[in-house]
Specification:
Strand content: over 45%
Shape: elongated
Order of helices and strands: HEEEEEEEEEEEEEEEE
Number of helices: 1
Number of strands: 16
Structural class: mainly beta
Radius of gyration: 22 Å
C-alpha cells in the first residue's frame, strides 16, 4: 500500500516536471519578425521626434530606416537615415552613417501585443555614426558599434503594422575636440517611437512581431 502511494507520488512529480520543462522553452523562445507576403521591404518612420541625450544636451532627430525581410526571422537588419532632421539647441546637425546599420533582435513575448527585444549598432571596423554640429567649432559626436540595447515591439490592433519603442540607456559615445566637453562616455540615452511597416511588390502588406 505504501509502495503504491510512493510510486503514484513519484509518477505525479515526474509528470509535473515534464510539463514545466515543456513550458519553460516556450516562454523563453525568441520572437520573429513576420510579413504577410515575402520578400518584403521593411520601413520605419518616426512618430514625433527621437531624442539623443548626451553631455552636450538633448539632440532631437527625425529618422527613417529600411531593410529586407525574405522570410520569418528572429533578426532584422535596417539602415537608418537621418538626413538633415537633427538639431541640438536649434543648431543643425549633419549625420553620416559611415556604413553603420541597426540589427534588431526579437525577444520574448511580454504581453498580448508586446514583444521585447534588443538592438545592435553594427559598423565597419574603425567606423561610427557621426553627428557633426558645425556651429560648435565642428563638434563631432560619434556613436560606435555596440550590442544589447533594449527595445520593445508593439503590434498594432488597428493597422497591419507595429511600433518600435526605443528607450536605450547607457549608450556609448565620444565627444571630439571642438565640443564643449571632450572624452568617451557611456551615459547616453536614446528615446523615440517608430512605426514599422512592410511592402511587397510596391504594395503595403502586413507586418508583426510574434
Amino acid at each position: 500500500m505504501k509502495t503504491s502511494r510512493k510510486l503514484r507520488s513519484a509518477l505525479l512529480a515526474l509528470i509535473a516536471f515534464c510539463a514545466l520543462a515543456a513550458l519553460g522553452p516556450a516562454q523563453s523562445q525568441a520572437g520573429e519578425f513576420t510579413a504577410a507576403e515575402y520578400p518584403a521591404t521593411i520601413t520605419g518612420q518616426n512618430v514625433g521626434v527621437h531624442e539623443l541625450t548626451t553631455e552636450i544636451g538633448v539632440m532631437e532627430c527625425e529618422m527613417t530606416f529600411d531593410g529586407p525581410l525574405v522570410e520569418p526571422s528572429e533578426t532584422l537588419t535596417v539602415v537608418p537615415t537621418y538626413g538633415t532632421g537633427c538639431t541640438i539647441e536649434g543648431l543643425m546637425v549633419h549625420v553620416s552613417n559611415n556604413g553603420c546599420d541597426f540589427l534588431l533582435h526579437a525577444g520574448e513575448t511580454l504581453g498580448e501585443h508586446e514583444v521585447g527585444g534588443t538592438m545592435d549598432i553594427q559598423c565597419p571596423v574603425g567606423n561610427a555614426i557621426d553627428f557633426e554640429i558645425t556651429a560648435m567649432m565642428f563638434c563631432h559626436l560619434t556613436v560606435p558599434a555596440q550590442e544589447g540595447l533594449a527595445v520593445k515591439f508593439q503590434n498594432s490592433t488597428m493597422f497591419p503594422d507595429a511600433h518600435l519603442n526605443t528607450n536605450v540607456q547607457g549608450l556609448t559615445y565620444r565627444l571630439d575636440p571642438g565640443c564643449p566637453v571632450v572624452g568617451n562616455y557611456n551615459n547616453g540615452t536614446y528615446t523615440g517611437t517608430t512605426t514599422v511597416k512592410a511592402d511587397h511588390g510596391g504594395m503595403g502588406t502586413g507586418f508583426a512581431v510574434y
